[in-house]
Amino acid sequence: MQEVLLKNEDALVQKDRKKSNSAVVVGTTITVLGTALVILPILLLKPMIPPPIRPVHFPEVNITGLGIVRGLLIENEVEQYLGIPYSKNVSGAYRFSPARIQNRSWSGAFDARSPGLKCWSPSPFPGPAAGMLKPIQNKQGDMGEECLNLNIYRKPVQNSTSKTLKPVMFWIHGGGMTVGSNLGTNGTDFVKRNDVILVMVNYRLGPLGFLNTHVAGSQHEGSGTMNGINDQIVALQWVKAYIENFGGDPNLVTVFGVSAGGLSTCILSISPRARDLFSHSIIESGR
Q1: Which residues contact 205 (CB under 8 A, 6 or more apart)?
Q2: What does the alpha-carbon distance between residue 82 and residue 79 come to, in Å, rounded to a whole number?
Q3: pTM given for the model
Q4: Can you list the alpha helix ranges (DSSP code H) found in 130-177?
Q5: Is the CATH number of domain 60-284 3.40.50.1820?
Q6: Is 54 helix (H, G, I), strand (E, B) or coil?
Q7: CA separation for the pair 201, 48 (Å, rounded)
């Protein structure tokens, strides 16, 4: 009788152990599932969480006689100042008038964080080069007559007390004197690879830049057939007067350009009016 009771007691103990083990397994399973339900959404959502926003830096340059110009720092490597006017009043009744240097100060800080106007150009470009030049016409930026502006690129100034000036590269875009703008070439990339001050200039195109307006007594006598070239000379005058504010050497300016920019460089090289405005030139496929 006693043996029977002991056997029954052992059976009950074994049964309780099985129940206990089952409870532990179930409890562990619930815990794992609960943890997974908490962690899994975090893992799934992690790629969707945006990276921390870097503080945006707007560098400023005080141009003597004009005022402050506010630019944009690109990838912590290059400062760019876009759409700075070097001349004005070349629209409406003055659209065929020669450009004159912009030397009047502006109020407040001039916002140079976005591109200025592109110079008006005929569309589509005539002749077999139309397909090749179409991408030049479609670059960002709106067209307008008050388009005589320039873009300046430089590396951030590490030592504000340094008086060492950098060489200046003055870029003239191509496009058959008919299309193109100072937005057609990557100035940021150029300055990343070269420790210079880069200036990229707009000039009037097509009839607004090269129509023969040299008529005696005409109020639009202008620069004959060369208003576009005169624009470039005025831009060089602006650089001569103000580029030192950006750390550029006004006595070490190299004019360079491709295609129509190369031709412009040729013309500037023999122009008496441009003689003292630059010291070197690079002609790229100009004809």
Answers
A1: 119, 120, 121, 175, 177, 178, 179, 180, 228
A2: 10
A3: 0.75
A4: 130-137
A5: yes
A6: coil
A7: 42
The pair of structure tokens assigned to 194 is: 């070269």
Tell me the C-alpha to C-alpha distance, in Å, between residue 110 and each of 64, 101, 107, 164.
Answer: 13, 17, 8, 26
Reading the block at residue 62, the tokens are 């005080």
What pLDDT score does 211 carry?
86
Q: What is the pLDDT of residues 236-255, one digit of tens each?
A: 999 999 999 999 999 999 99
Q: What is the DSSP-derived secondary structure letter of residue 101? A: B
d(CA 262, CA 189): 21
C-alpha to C-alpha distance for 149 and 231, rounded to whole angstroms: 10
pLDDT in tens, 110-139: 999 999 999 998 765 555 555 544 544 445
List, for residues 70-100, the tens digit of each pLDDT value: 999 998 899 999 999 999 889 888 888 899 9
Residues of the chain with pLDDT under 50: 4-6, 13, 24-26, 32, 42-43, 53, 132-133, 135-138
Please tell me the total number of residues recorded for the chain in this structure.
287
196 touches 249 (CB < 8 A): no
What's at 191, amino acid-wise?
A: V
